[in-house]
Design a protein that fits this description.
Length: 260
Amino acid sequence: MAQPGDRICGNCSEANDPTRKFCRRCGTTLVNAEIVGAKKLPWWKRLFRRQPKQYAAGERTKGMSKEAAKAAGGGGGRIGKIIAAVLMLAIVVSLAGYVAVPSFQGMVNSALSGAVNSVSRIINPKFVHVYPIPSAVTTSDQLAGHPASQMFDTYSNTDWRANGQQPSVTVKFDQKFDLGVMHIFSGASDNFAAFRRPKTLLFNFSDGSSVTVDLQDDKTMQTMSVAKNGIDSFTMTVTATYGPTNQPLVISEIEVYAKQ
């Protein structure tokens, strides 16, 4: 019986091995012989099936006869079919479980939702304004009527003022958060040029890391992108300033934003 790939002799209709050049019955050339096509398989079998190589008439398959090639490759083909069947069964069972079992649906949906949220948080993060604990704002130096806590009161017409050359402020929050950005309003809002303004800020975070930020000498809001995960406090030290050296340092406002 003719097998897929066999060459059918046009003279005597004999089925010949794909590697033969001449018909084994009548000796007619097989160059233009009709090749037996493979049976059409179901779509799910075709998905995992490797197509057999088509040989020209007389082309050798590394010295192996058709029977020898089948004997050597038969085991691998069976294993491939078993693997494909197992994969298809797993897909069918998973789909059936998703449709039939509400708890399984919830688990899958929750996992997908978590993955989507994680990607979205990286690509397009959202920010929420967070505030330090008022009583936990401490400083190395401040002038009367201008405590460091006024930097975090959301009003730019109030400010922190300090006489020291490198004054610092430590702030603590009521829970850990992922820092995204900070906004700073430098100098005094009513008389910007009359006082010192911060030029360089050093931040030491509760996770042990530190960041140095350079500021412009500008009274408008400046944005500092500082990504830190899982912090609940930081210390800010002014390490360099603009303006008259004999005047107090002034910072009107600092706004801290956490990533959501």
